[in-house]
Amino acid sequence: MDNYQKEIAELGEILFEQRRWSEAIALYEQAIALYPNSASLYNYLGYAQWQQGNTAAAISSYYRAIELDPNLASTYYNLGKIWQSENDCAAAVACFIQVIKLQPNYMPIYSDLGYCLMAEGKLTEAMACFREAIARQPLFVESFCNGVEQRLIAAKTELDEFARAKIACAKFLRALQQQFDAPEVLEYLLETYVRLGNAVFDGGGYRQGAIYYEYALQIQPDHATANWQLGQIREKQGLWQEAIACYLQILTSNSGAEPLSELINFDNSILPKTESTILPQGIYQFTQDWLDCHRQTRSFPRKREPIFSSIISNRELLYIPINCPLEASNYDTAFFSSVEFLDSRFRGNDITVKSNDSSVEFVDSRFRGNDITVKSNDSSVEFVDSRFRGNDITVKSNDSIVEFVDSRFRGNDITVKSNDSIVEFVDSRFRGNDNTVKSNDSIVEFVDSRFRGNDNTVKSNYSSVEFVDSRFRGNDNTETVFNVSQVKPNDNKTCEGIHCQSCLSQINRWFNPVNLGNGLERASYPCYPNNLTNYPTFVAHIPAGRVWIAPQKSSWQICNAIAVITPDNYLLADLSRSYPGQLPGCENYDPRKHRIFQLDTLPKLTEIDGTVAILSGLSGHVYFHWLVDILPRWELLRLSGIDLSKIDWFVVNSLRQPFQRETLEYLGIPERKIIESDRYPHIQAQQLVVPSFPGFLGWLPPWALQFLRSQFLGFFGNGLEFSEASSNNYNYPERIYISREKAQYRRAINETEVEETLEKIGFVNIFIESYSVREQIRLFAHAKMIITAHGSGLTNIIFCQPNTEIMELVSPNYIKHYFWVISQQLGLKHYYLVGESFACYPLRYIMDPNPLTENILVNIDRLKKALSALDLP
After folding, report:
1. What is the distance between the alpha carbons of residues 231 and 323, in angstroms, rounded to a whole number?
2. Among 5, 329, 588, 684, which has the highest number of CB atoms less than 10 A from its own CB?
């Protein structure tokens, strides 16, 4: 290879890393013009074309490379991956077999070949490939099996379905290593798939559950449980023909089938017993929109009259926006009253509505200095609404016929006519946009855009209300209220939540990690949008509001959803969350996919008299989420000016963990005032007080970080001088290694080697779960360098001093930004060392269905080089 070809290779590598596929294609096409017989150039060109989405061109380039050099293993492998992605497993298998002939020690090839052989139904041959993959990386499987045998098989406690799946998987792996074609190998694998499907299905993971059941049916097509459960999933996804096919498979088969009566749950307890168990009928995107809507329609339900009469008489605050850092002048307030209406779409504007008998006076001004009056007598209504200066709009109605004209921009008139009970409503709040909604019978459809350049249309086929409203500029197609029946399960724009690769790539670009070599990366100072740190915060008071908070069911299935529901039975999307969640910057998040809409009914309702504040959140049993996502909600309550002593109850996920009790006690919340949502997952309160989430899930905003530091560093008694610690003559180590040996997952596979390497240079091994929160804070505040596997133990870097060095050990399949955010704000030097990957992804997928739980194999040689690069002796 001459110098020019070397320069092409180096430049091509840079373009590949930066995903600049068009430039890479141009580069290799120019190079091929000079070197037309270079197989490697065609190979690189094919890869760039494939990544750009031009599959046909890529295949052509690969075949040309094979024609020029039939011994180039990478070309066969790349071509095989294309055929695999195109579901042409026979062609993929042929390519992968050629790779094994040319390069038998290439570890990933056995995984890919085994995967394709399984898809072709060649199960025994696939098992042989998987055994070869294990033989080349035995530590991953050995660590997994040992962990299951020590923690689960030997356990005396009752096991859940996920634990049973792990046991079945460990038995499968042991059997596979001994004799790949033994009958029990496929028996254990079948059990693993079915139990994983059951566990995921129970947690609402229909898409992943369907995949496991489909794998099970590859082994035994007439398996009754797999067919029944897959049919249930297809029903929920609206795939009726596929669901019917699954059920027919059960009816036409007698092999290995459980009695049908055991598969079908005839328990009447699943049926709604009271009105309170009914799922929300729709969604409000923003809490403020619900307030605006119910004030305008005065359709606020009064199921519990004493509650509402007391609220109306006391003019209780319903909505308190908070912009942190908060000042007294930041407050905007909104009141609800049956006789007086305040509506302001900008600061400094008051709108008053009064009503006597059938006479209505309506004043609505959307800009400063403009008053609009509407009067009505008998059944005749005149409506005037002007959203800009100098424009009058009149609406008249006789009998049941309504003509409505509303222009929200200069020079545009919009007319709506209706006959009988049919209403057509057109409302444009921006220049040059017409939005038309039609309805039949008693159907009402309302389209409202408050920003330029957005078209929102809602249609309905029965007597429900659909409302679209966007209150801010620059937001496209944001629906404020959705009819749940409009959910499209197969929508290609479905957000993948915290595992969404496009969102994770965007976050990675914000932080722009610097590769220091040998698997060591450093998170640099990010350039991310301001709205990530200026997350809108508020406190909402919801009379007779309800909340459903999914309880912890097992060690792996903790709180995965929280839903705040209005008294008129709508979900408030900005106060509700569910996994898979939403990453910062995500544009495809759809609140209609909230887990509450996957339920058949809600648990029994517990009604509580008094004022109840909601602090629970997703994964509220985990130390990281407890500090980052939950405790700052208490601070929002305080910042809003609420007298916390008048709150009768505080709802948190649980009080099982010592850190939960310790931190709540320090904040002054007595245990007698605490309700555990794990015990009471569905409650309705006389007055529900709900602080917003402090920020995006797991993303700690600056104000919340300062709150935690100011509150809990006070444990020292004298700020950061550590006078209490000094008086106790306790010598805190400067270098600490936080072990996850006692954790259930994400442990270091070669923990002993890691500890021995670090002990030689002065690191002290710490089991953080053995310390109180106070002691953990002291340890981290004194430390100068901290090394640990990614996990909750790192949460305490919140209390580190500037320039503290952090080295996070991570799996290559689970590299997350959560602690980078904290380190960036505090000026910490944050590094992460990427471990080795188990190349056999079909097995990895059943050993660890979620990459979050993957154990980490630390390359000791790389660890030593990383420590040397940081000038550690």
Report:
1. 48
2. 684
pLDDT reported for residue 258: 53
Q: What is the mean pLDDT of the chain?
A: 76
Amino acid in the structure at residue 654: S
Instruction: Indicate the pairing of strand 465-470 with strand 444-449.
Output: parallel
Burial class (CB in 10 A: 0-12, 13-18, 19+), 407: buried
Q: Cα torsion for 207, 211, 213, 217, to the nearest 10°? A: 150
CA distance 151 to 744: 8
Distance, CA of 568 to CA of 303 (rounded, Å): 10
| 8 Å CB contact between 781 and 800 | yes
Helices and strands (H and E) in the chain: how many: 28, 31
Assigned token pair, 51: 């990544």
DSSP string, 162-190: HHHHHHHHHHHHHHHHH-TT-HHHHHHHH
Residue 370 DSSP code: -
Q: Mind giving me the DSSP string for 511-524?
A: H-PEEEETTEEE--
Question: Going by DSSP bridges, is the β-strand pair 561-565/764-766 parallel, antiparallel, or unpaired?
Answer: unpaired
218 half-sphere exposure, CB direction, 13 A CA radius: 20
- % of the chain exceeding 90 in pLDDT: 52
pLDDT attached to residue 294: 65
DSSP 837-866: --S-HHHHHHH-SSGGG--BB--HHHHHHH
In this predicted structure, the answer to whether residue 591 has a pLDDT above a threshold of 60 is yes
Q: Are strands 537-543 and 577-578 parallel, antiparallel or unpaired?
A: unpaired
Residue 697 DSSP SS3 = coil
Q: What's the confidence (pLDDT) of residue 493?
A: 55
Q: Tens of pLDDT along 821-858?
A: 999 999 999 999 999 999 999 999 999 988 888 999 99
Q: What is the pLDDT of residues 622-662, one digit of tens each?
A: 999 999 999 999 999 999 888 999 999 999 999 999 999 99
Q: Are 86 and 53 in contact (CB under 8 A)?
A: no
DSSP string, 634-648: HHHHHHTT--GGG--
The region that residue 589 occupies, defined by phi over 0 for left and psi between -120 and 50 for alpha, beta otherwise, is: beta
Q: Which pLDDT score, from 0 to 100, does residue 299 have?
A: 47
Q: What is the pTM of this model?
A: 0.74
Q: How is the beta sheet containing 415-417 ordered, strand by strand?
A: 353-356, 359-362, 374-377, 380-384, 394-398, 401-405, 415-417
Q: How is residue 355 written in tokens?
A: 């009503």
User: Cα(581)–Cα(201) distance, rounded to whole angstroms?
Assistant: 17
Q: Which two tokens stand for residue 479?
A: 């629906």
pLDDT bucket at 271, cuts 50 / 70 / 90: very low
| Whole-number pLDDT of residue 411 | 36
Residue 537, strand partner residues: 322
On whether the CB atoms of residues 419 and 401 are closer than 8 A, the answer is yes
Residue 476, pLDDT above cutoff 70: no
Pull the structure tokens for residue 511: 């932080």
Dump pLDDT digits (tens) for 401-438: 233 333 333 333 333 333 333 233 333 333 333 333 33
Q: Which pLDDT does position 364 carry in this prediction?
A: 34
* CA count, 13 A, side-chain hemisphere, 511: 26
Is pLDDT of 505 > 90? no
